[in-house]
Specification:
It is a single chain. The chain is an alpha/beta fold and about 450 residues long. Helices cover about 50% and strands about 10% of the residues. The strands form 4 sheets. A 5-stranded parallel sheet has the order 2-1-3-6-7, with helices on both faces. It starts with a strand and ends in a 12-residue tail after the last helix.
Length: about 450
């Protein structure tokens, strides 16, 4: 039997019985109604996937059935049928929301093709709804794990400001989940069905970043062969997330200030002003107040972006959350990889709680994923964890001077970056992606940790 329940609506009993009988022979489940009121009653009583309704009925017309379905059961596809088909009727039917308009006398192949198309489209719509629900779950607060009291304050703040238009500044160290929090704010707002556009401001030079954000006009620079829409235009009615905003140049800061004040701008090389309705979320791992004092960030822009500030605490200050997060990442990795695990050995959890976590939640996620994929035992043990966990463990027990503390913090960070660089053959772009940081941040870390001299042939 074919999937899908059909409702036929026609006041000609002979036509109704004949078409219902033929469709049942083709394997469809079929309900039949000879009036508009009977059709509406059947839809209320029994779920249907597709309605095929004649336009002319004894107590109304098929357009009324269509309108009622659109209002009360929008997931039901409706195909209208008429014996007096005209171009105007077809246009009216499609404008009213009908999936198709068929003209009598009906041809068997044409009817079955229309039914198959309508049911296939309904299936795609349902799959898209399920996918969206999964994305909402993945990027909503449900995926940000934390029982720490500071994280609870973050969750409360997100709930209170998500559905406003206020600009949000998310601060915190690299790897604390700023991008994930920005997506959660978007998903919990009334803009959730519109675009979420993410821009890594530190990953591209100033001239390219300005074009990327605001678009450009044809001929505005070499290679600009046509007009291009920028990220702000793409995020119209939705949300734009500007990561590493502290890296923006003074010139770009001026343009950003105007956008945040007036929500208008001109594309590069154009004099035509564009206006957008965009929610702006920004993020940085720097102290912007210090950047203002040092003259690297405009004071007026700082006041504009700092309307609502959400600070994500580093993982080392959320020790109680480490077992929860580790288990969360272990469960997800096992599901994706089709593996089974009995959890973590006690000594492994203890070691993770003693470690400093310079890469924060992102580093924990990478380490758990690696332990699950490479581990051979039923549980993740200390042997499945990389060397920097052991280094962090031993360093935690020794009294440290200021210089020794700095060295202890740098050792595991250097080990992580070196390992990922070697895994990616010293390709900085691939390494930055794997670590979840932008290329500029990686370059600064490599320079500070004396990792600038890679093997010959290493790609930038």
């Amino acid at each position: 039997m074919k999937s899908g329940r059909l409702l036929l609506v026609d006041d000609d009993r002979h036509v109704l019985d004949a078409m219902a009988g033929w469709l049942r022979e083709q394997g469809y489940q079929v309900l039949a109604a000879s009036t508009r009121d009977e059709a509406l009653r059947l839809i209320k009583e029994r779920p249907v996937d597709l309605v095929l309704a004649d336009i002319r009925l004894s107590d109304g017309d098929g357009f009324q059935v269509l309108g009622w379905c659109r209002e009360h059961y929008p997931h039901i596809a409706v195909v209208l049928i008429t014996g007096y088909g005209t171009v105007e009727t077809a246009i009216d039917a499609l404008r009213a929301g009908a999936f198709d308009l068929l003209t009598k006398p009906l041809i068997d192949e044409e009817l079955e093709m229309a039914i198959d198309r309508a049911l296939s489209q309904r299936k795609v719509v349902e799959e898209n709804k399920q996918l969206k629900a999964q994305l909402d779950l993945r990027f909503g607060l449900e995926n940000i794990v934390g029982h720490d009291h500071r994280m609870q304050r973050v969750f409360d703040m997100v709930d209170r400001i998500a559905d406003t238009r206020a600009t949000v500044l998310v601060t915190g160290e690299s790897g604390t989940g700023k991008s994930l929090l920005a997506r959660a704010i978007h998903r919990r707002s009334s803009r959730r069905d519109q675009a979420f556009v993410e821009v890594a401001c530190g990953a591209m030079p100033e001239t390219l970043l300005e074009s990327e954000l605001f678009g450009h006009a044809a001929g505005s620079f070499t290679g600009a062969t046509g007009d291009k829409f920028g990220k702000f235009t793409q995020a119209d009615k939705g949300t734009i997330f500007l990561d590493e905003i502290s890296t923006s140049s003074p010139g770009l800061q001026v343009k950003l200030l105007r956008v945040l004040q007036e929500f208008s701008f001109e594309p590069v090389g154009s004099t035509k002003t564009q206006k957008v309705d965009t929610r702006v979320i920004l993020a940085t791992n720097e102290n912007l107040e210090l950047a203002v004092q040092q003259g690297r960030f405009r004071q007026d822009l700082f006041y504009r972006v700092n309307v609502i500030n959400i600070e994500l605490p580093p993982l080392r200050e959320r020790l109680a959350d480490i077992p929860l997060l580790a288990q969360h990442f272990l469960t997800r990795t096992c599901e994706e990889a089709g593996k089974k695990s009995q959890g973590f050995a006690e000594e492994a959890v203890a070691a993770m709680q003693r470690y400093y976590w310079p890469g924060n939640v992102r580093e924990l996620q990478n380490i758990v994923e690696r332990a699950v994929l490479l581990g051979r035992g039923p549980k993740v043990t200390l042997d499945d964890l990389p060397s920097q966990i052991t280094l962090g463990q031993s360093a935690a027990h020794e009294p440290l001077s200021g210089k020794a503390l700095k060295d202890a913090m740098e050792a595991p960070e250097r080990a992580i970056i070196l390992e990922v660089l070697e895994m990616n053959h010293w390709n900085r772009n691939a390494t930055a992606d794997a670590l979840g940081i932008n290329r500029t941040t990686l370059y600064k870390k490599m320079k500070r940790l004396r990792l600038m001299s890679g093997p010959q042939g290493a790609r930038p």
